[in-house]
Amino acid sequence: MKNTLFYFLSIILFSCSASYKIKKAAKKDVLQNKVFTSAHTGISVYDVASNKYLYNYQGDKYFVPASNTKLWMCYASMKYLGDSIVGIKYKETNDTLYITPVGDPTFLGAEFINQPVYNFLKNTNKPIVINTSLWREQRWGSGWSWNDYNDDYAAERSEMPVYENLATFSNDLKSINVSPPYFSNKIIYVISNNKNRNYISIERDMESNIFFVTGNDSLKRMVQIPFYTGDSTLINILQDTLHKVFYINDLLNNENTNDWKALYSQPTDSLLKITMHRSDNFFAEQSLLMISAKLLGIMNDEKIIGTLLKTDYNDLPQKPHWVDGSGLSHYNLFSPQDFVTLLNKMKNSFGMDRIKAILPTGGTGTLSNYYKKDSGFIFAKTGSLSGVVALSGFLYTKKNKLMIFSFLINNYRGANPRKDIEKFIEDVRNKN
């Protein structure tokens, strides 16, 4: 009885002391900082052992979270995609192979050497019919900026991505090379009259796969441009790559594919690790669509987000406005307390060992320039958009207390505040 009382008294005393120290650090590192005073700032810090918040500054207010949105996709992927993601579903008859894409973004991706779907399709002698009935989406997510279409961080979404839906340009000092080779006859060279322009720029026509190459010299580095996924792009790339006959068949739209065989492609956590370490928008978007395909039998953001908010995320302190998997949209609105609730749920559901294997720590991934001094004490997801900086994750203090935090900033002007956030996080760690 005495030991139990002592334990609870210790927790109470720690909580009071820690709250005071965090409040003091927040005032010194953040609230008196001119970068933050003109911005909309929210901070929540939660102690796992005492099951209580140690600090809240506008923790119940709504913020655009940028790529912190990927944490919602990540939890759902960890729960619903299983150990390995489904590459395709298929069935065979005597003369035809039927496949149903389910959104797998790793098919012929450069980082995935093992390609079970490619090998399966390569080894068949039958014509291949692609059933696209599960796709109920647009190429871009809700609220994406339309003029990002030419940037590699905004690759178009599709039912069966190939080469991560990116055309890769390089040059061998003689000519421009492009992968996949299908696009080699889609390049138009534009002569530049600007003699001071000693580099090459590449821009794609918005509604086709015509690429305009402008410049006087050469590419300084490899350039990746999202290709247009509409029309017959998928069929053309597959036929050019695999040298097989492919067809799209809309007659399969009403067929139940639940009893089709599943061909698995990559371990789920290996995809999630890449997604979270480099904040890959395309992988995040396709992962949410894969969850939709598995749970609902269609690929649609609005429907799967609505389902998750009514089930797994029905206990959030503030009801969010969530529209995409990546966080590219400014329509997303979450509170810091929402993120703390999610991360605590993630810890309780999957354990810290699995989380540590997926989220970046200091000196790695999107944290490669931060928290190097004590790498291994923080595991978190960054977020960045114009005027938006976010960081939410887990923190082990010097006394080995596990804390969950969320730091969201909107509408800041001036220098990037990440170093100021780092100072605050280090103060929380060192003094608790």
Strand order of the largest sheet: 2-1-16-15-14
CATH domain class name of the largest domain: Alpha Beta
Average pLDDT rating: 91
Instruction: Write the element-wise H/E pattern from the N-terminal end onward.
Output: HHEEHEEHEEEEEEEHEEHHHHHEEEH
Write the layout of secondary structure elements.
Elements: H1 2-31, H2 34-37, E1 40-47, E2 52-57, H3 70-80, E3 84-92, E4 97-101, H4 116-123, E5 128-130, E6 166-171, E7 176-179, E8 187-191, E9 200-204, E10 211-215, E11 223-226, H5 233-242, E12 246-248, E13 261-267, H6 268-277, H7 281-296, H8 301-310, H9 336-350, H10 352-358, E14 378-385, E15 388-396, E16 402-410, H11 418-430
Parallel strand pairs: 4-5, 5-12, 8-10
Antiparallel strand pairs: 1-2, 1-16, 3-4, 3-13, 6-7, 6-11, 9-10, 14-15, 15-16
Description of the molecule:
The protein is built from eleven helices and 16 strands. Helices cover 31% and strands 22% of the residues. It folds into two domains: 20-78 and 274-430, Beta-lactamase; 87-265, no CATH class. The chain has helices at residues 2-31, 34-37, 70-80, 116-123, 233-242, 268-277, 281-296, 301-310, 336-350, 352-358, 418-430, and strands at 40-47, 52-57, 84-92, 97-101, 128-130, 166-171, 176-179, 187-191, 200-204, 211-215, 223-226, 246-248, 261-267, 378-385, 388-396, 402-410. It is an alpha+beta fold.
Brief digest:
This protein is an alpha+beta fold and 432 residues long. It contains 11 helices and 16 strands. α1 (2-31) packs antiparallel against α11, α3 packs parallel to α9 (336-350) and α6 (268-277) runs antiparallel to α7 (281-296).
